[in-house]
Structure of NAD-dependent epimerase/dehydratase family protein:
Amino acid sequence: RILIIGACGQIGTELTLKLREIHGNDQVIASDIREGAEELMESGPFEILNATDDAHIRKVIHDYEVKEVYLMAAMLSATAEKAPMKAWDLNMDSLFHILNIAKEGIIDKIFWPSSIAVFGPTTPKDNTPQTTVMEPTTVYGISKQTGERWCEYFHRKFGVDVRSLRYPGIISYKTLPGGGTTDYAIEIFHEALKNSAYTSFLAEDAGLPMMYMDDAIKATVEIMEAPAEKIKVRSSYNLAAMSFTPEVLASEIKKHIKNFEISYDPDFRQSIAESWPSSIDDSTAREDWGWKHEFDLEKLTTTMLKGVSATLKTQN
Ligand code: VAH
């Protein structure tokens, strides 16, 4: 069976639903420190689980005969800056527990998400290569960079089959955003539909790599299903689909909501965004295990407007 830790988060929620669709509801155990979306809670087994509680993780793995773990729990960039040591403990302790459980042969395979946050201000910004200078300046980025090194170490030293993707900003509508710097690109759709106006906490020219949720889920399923010999990168793969600025996203939304107005009031998250790449070279993932994205900005925008307006209708 499969265990998802952090199943109620932005990616965890949709990943759980997709894995249940593929493997069967009772084969995928969702777990999180708190309950989540109704669709997730009602479609299969759920456990309240703290990602730093080794003994409880081991009990859940034993009781449900889990062989694969997706560790989706983490504190994201903006939130982590407000609680650095708490973020470090959560992001790192949870990873060490799972890597050691795999080293002991109790589970066979791990997925662990990294992020474009591993790159920093000294990294080449455009078409950032798979291997390059990485001097992250956020707690979240430091934890993800360190986590990548440990994943590569446990694979090389102990043969642990851990696979990882450096997710870009991920856009979706089934859950609210999770405390990231790229959250503006989700909030903007809710505000555009509710008020035809949005004040962006990033500047108009803050270009960032972005991806629609379905592509991120597709990449996660595909890298885990790929034959082990194809996974040559055991730190984490660059992954990309598109890049855009708040200004470009706003003009795409205006094609659908004519009177939509955007204004800009950059906050502390602007300096985080400035430290990250504006676009990513993911040719290694495309070569090694056949990655290719499907959603471009136009398709992302129409899908988000449709999804968010449906969600808003159910709330009224
Ligand atoms: C964040 N959404 O903003 C996450 C992600 C690249 C961004 O890591 O922190």
User: Anything to note?
Assistant: Residues 76-77, 115-117, 140, 168-169, 180-182 surround (3R)-3-hydroxy-L-norvaline (CB under 6 Å). The longest strand covers residues 28-32.
